[in-house]
């Protein structure tokens, strides 16, 4: 299977602080990939490494078979929409499109004009006068009209209202399907990822905690609720990811090929949010144990 991004032992350090460390991952092409994790997990660093804006401190990364940002041809394959969907406030919508055509050898002017018209954006209007949702759609249009093979988006809808987010994500989904585009989308809003992503990566503690197709990950996990008990009594092959306890009852997220058939437990399929939070909580618990061991 063709990979859109491969990283091995990838790390990036700022001074003495590691923003990303020992990141090993292989993302297949043709997916809308959701990258999710807590603030400071290294999401933006990973995306900038993939886009060629940063160089690794350790390890290696390839995107579409080449070194990110290494040649003009490699740059042309990747579109990047940064946080806050940056556009030039003093330029008009039409001037943004003309700039895009000059900077990008694979620029699709017809598609850009058609999309701007369909969105109701006025070509003569300056970007600084657009709403947040309109600026986001303009930035997405610039990324799509570049005709990349991989489109990277770093928290593109975090500042938008719910309706603007929905419209942005709907447009992204339609474009990805029409252009057979690989997408890497960073967000801390799991509900948004559920709408558009078929592949997810959980990044926490600067390391990948979980990666895979959403449907397969959900099928391999179970949410168990029942009397408070010892998870060590679960059958072999059941691995507890996270546990919560309240008022004599416990809730576990468990990874296993089959659910536990025990009337004492209520078994349900976890949501994507359940799964993401479970692996983030697992990482936080591992970090707390490591700190306690050091203090001893």
Automatic annotation (TrEMBL):
- Determine if Transmembrane helix is one of this entry's keywords: no
Q: Which Gene3D superfamilies match?
A: P-loop containing nucleotide triphosphate hydrolases
List UniProt keywords, sorted A-Z.
Answer: ATP-binding, Nucleotide-binding, Transport
Can you name the source organism? Sphaerisporangium dianthi
Q: Which domain of life is it from?
A: Bacteria
The record's section on InterPro entries has:
AAA+_ATPase (IPR003593), ABC_transporter-like_ATP-bd (IPR003439), ABC_Transporter_VariousFunc (IPR051782), P-loop_NTPase (IPR027417)
| Residues of the ABC transporter domain | 5-230
Which PANTHER family does its entry note? ABC TRANSPORTER ATP-BINDING PROTEIN ALBC-RELATED
Q: Does the keyword Transport apply?
A: yes
Q: Which PROSITE patterns match?
A: ABC_TRANSPORTER_2 (PS50893)
Name of the featured protein: ABC transporter ATP-binding protein
GO MF annotations, alphabetized: ATP binding
